[in-house]
Amino acid sequence: xxxxxxxxxxxxxxxxxxxxxxxxxxxxxxxxxxxxxxxxxxxxxxxxxxxxxxxxxxxxxxxxxxxxxxxxxxxxxxxxxxxxxxxxxxxxxxxxxxxxxxxxxxxxxxxxxxxxxxxxxxxxxxxxxxxxxxxxxxxxxxxxxxxxxxxxxxxxxxxxxxxxxxxxxxxxxxxxxxxxxxxxxxxxxxxxxxxxxx
Length: 198
Description:
The chain is an all-alpha fold. 82% of the residues lie in helices and 0% in strands. The protein has one domain (3-197). The chain is globular and about 55 Å long.
């Protein structure tokens, strides 16, 4: 494999993993509210869920998808509805009990896994990546492994950022404002996708 192809794969995986999307916003919010450790299971679910989606699309499902635009549209609409639900969960969350400062609820592994399967950004990244780099079976395997590593690191980066900025959100009011803002961004972005499909 040439260094040019490797750098192209690396850049593709990095840009699509680090660029803000529903998963990144949820990780930022979760890490700020509950810390890195409590968020890591969601990061793992999101990374593994995306990687399995990429594998399935890599080995035959891509051709089926390109012939079924209705399927992709349906996934985008249902995915957007799920993202709206996750945004609502952030808005109404009570991240800390003021009496003992213990987290009351945080995102789980299965939510991260499921979100990637309903995330339009994940489908776009998978289909585009397969189209660009499925030149051989060897290159596809390499791309999947590389993307897995890059995705884990980038999503973890968002969690580290959330954990670090938590010192600035040291009151219930500040956390509430942050949660409403993050949840609102998720809901607006999901509504935008639905409007485009209608």
